[in-house]
Amino acid sequence: MLRTLTLSLTLLVLAACQSGPKTDYDPNTNFAAMKHFALQTPEQTNDPLSSERIAMAVTQTLMAKGMSQSDTPDFKVTWVFQTGSKPTSSGLSIGLGTGSWGHSGGVSVGTSVGLPLGGEKQYQQIQIDILTASGDRLLWRGSDSFEFSDGGEDKAEATQKTVAKILAAFPPTPK
Questions:
Q1: Tell me, what CATH number does 141's domain have?
Q2: pTM, full prediction
Q3: Can you list the pairs that 8-17 forms with residues at least 24 positions away whose Cβ atoms lie under 8 Å?
Q4: How many CB atoms lie within 10 A of CB 131?
Q5: Going by C-beta distance under 8 Å and a sequence separation of 6 or more, which residues neighbour residue 4?
Q6: What residue stretches are annotated with the DUF4136 domain (predicted)?
Q7: 42: left (phi over 0), alpha (psi -120 to 50) or beta
Q8: What pLDDT digit, counting tens, does each position of 101-142 carry?
Q9: Which ranges in 18-168 belong to alpha helices (H)?
Q10: Model confidence over 28-77: pLDDT tens digits?
Q11: Interatomic CA distance for residues 128 and 107, integer angstroms
């Protein structure tokens, strides 16, 4: 019984800590009819490598879903991204533990506050917008972020995975 309670509490805490892509969409849109897309490249950016990686990842992910790029699209895809840094400390930790001594047992819960003791981690937040074919109205939006330490292949792979996670929720399934 005690182990079941501890396991349940641990899973609940872990589930609460997980974050995934955030999405929003217009429920009146017929997403099932959307098969052809065009990229609407954002205006000038100070990080063209990241923008190109996002464009490639969007194209690959949508094509893997059976959609095709077209000059006469059903919808347009655009994106914005922000790169920044944050302290390496996570700030707050929650710990759960169990123990037994002889015939006695117990459960403990503790918290800890971390202080940033050094460097910063780089992160990139990506927002992908699905627009009407004319590009004048937002139909769907998804966003997520990832941390990275270096650019190059690691950042390119993290970008691909993040875009795939975001677009996993597109098209949305009605509830």
A1: 3.30.160.670
A2: 0.71
A3: 9/96, 10/96, 13/94, 13/96
A4: 20
A5: none
A6: 22-172
A7: beta
A8: 555 556 656 665 555 555 678 889 999 999 999 999 999 999
A9: 48-64, 153-167
A10: 999 999 999 999 988 867 888 999 999 999 999 999 999 999 999 999 99
A11: 44
Specify whether the CB–CB gap between 20 and 144 falls below 8 A.
Answer: yes
Cα–Cα nearest to 167, from 75, 85, 48: 75
Strand bridging mode 138-148 / 22-25: antiparallel
Quick check: is 110 in a domain? no
Amino acid letter for position 148: F
Q: Kindly state the tokens that stand for 102.
A: 């002889």
| Separation in Å, CA 38 to CA 17, 31, 75, 121, 168 | 36, 15, 7, 34, 18
What 3-state class would DSSP assign to 20? Answer: coil
96 within a domain of the structure (yes/no): no
Range of the domain at 65: 25-89+115-171
Assigned domain for 66 exists: yes
For residue 51, report the phi and psi dihedrals to the nearest 5 degrees.
Answer: -60, -40
Residue in this structure with the two tokens 């991204």, named with its chain if needed: 81
Report the sign of the C-alpha dihedral through residues 122, 128, 134, 139, in that order: negative
In a domain, 157, yes or no: yes
The count of other CB atoms within 10 Å of the CB of residue 87 is 14
b/e code 19-36 from CB counts within 10 Å (16+ = b): eebebebeeebebeebee
In this structure, the number of other CB atoms found within 10 A of the CB of residue 119 comes to 10
